[in-house]
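FIELD: query
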Amino acid sequence: MHRSFLGAVLVGALAIAVLAPPAGAQTVYFCKLKKGPDKGLAKVVKSPSKCKKKTGKLITVNSDGPAGAPGAPGAAGSDGAPGSVGATGATGPGGGATGATGATGATGDAGDTGATGSTGATGDAGDTGATGATGVTGPEGPAGATGATGATGTTGAAGTTGAAGTTGAAGTTGATGPTGPDGPTGPTGATGNNGNDGATGPTGATGNNGNNGATGPTGATGQAGTNGTNGTNGTNTSITGGGGQHMVVANNIGTDYYGPLMDQDPAGTEAVAQQVFPVGGSLSNLNVRLTGSPSAGDSYVFTLRVNGAGTEQTCTVAGTATSCTDGTGNLAVPAGGLVSIQVTETGTPDTQLAHWTAQFTSTP
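FIELD: result
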């Protein structure tokens, strides 16, 4: 009862404020309550700040010029869904010029969600699709168990006797049967005359050897023989040599020296390269190999030397060749002798790496 009365009062006040504003342009603010016993009713407020968003909704009304005749207040309706802005109405009778269109009112609260509609009827079934391609054959399954043996069929009628076949070949003679038991001994006959002597029978097989007799006593030791003559001492042959990554022969060396049994850098002084041979003997069969040729018209000469001298073992790598050999002559080496190999260039040969070997035969 109290709420209906208050609502009617507020609606009446709203109608009065809208239809009969004071002269001149004026803006009127209403606050539509959202909560409490007066929910849905509107009241006039002095400013927008007086209508809190949590408790009310602000409604702003503008007016220009004199208002038309007041209409009868309508009954308060329930809150509807937000409607679209209506067209401007015709000028009322006796009224002044049409006032400017008021500002669009605030959007009303969204209505409750409608109930879910019923499910539509099932559509017609679509046409059957084309048959898909045949899939690949799966792997062969395991063999099934052997079925039970079927019942034996009835025996067929006997066939007619065939024509007699040809006589087969005679079979092989069977094995001789066992000898029958001896018959009883007959009575002894009269002694006959002596027959002629039979031929001598073959010699019988040699009998097995008899066991060895016991070992006899050891004989007395004989006198020692004279010593034989000693043989001559043999020779001992080995291989010596040198070279490798550091035995570089180049077109600017002039003459350089290298030692045996080592891989050394070129030495311009022979004493730096000489190696001591503690055993006397001789050097022969000099062999030299380069990693490339000296080039046409150029050469390297290799000479084995002992104690700074000797030309018995020497060979030359020239032109496009890459090796040389001296298979003649022997260079004597005394015990403690100093051995080296001398390299001399001719022309402007290309730089190469050198390796060399020689045969050393020691003195008996």
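FIELD: remark
The helical segments are 2-19, 270-273.
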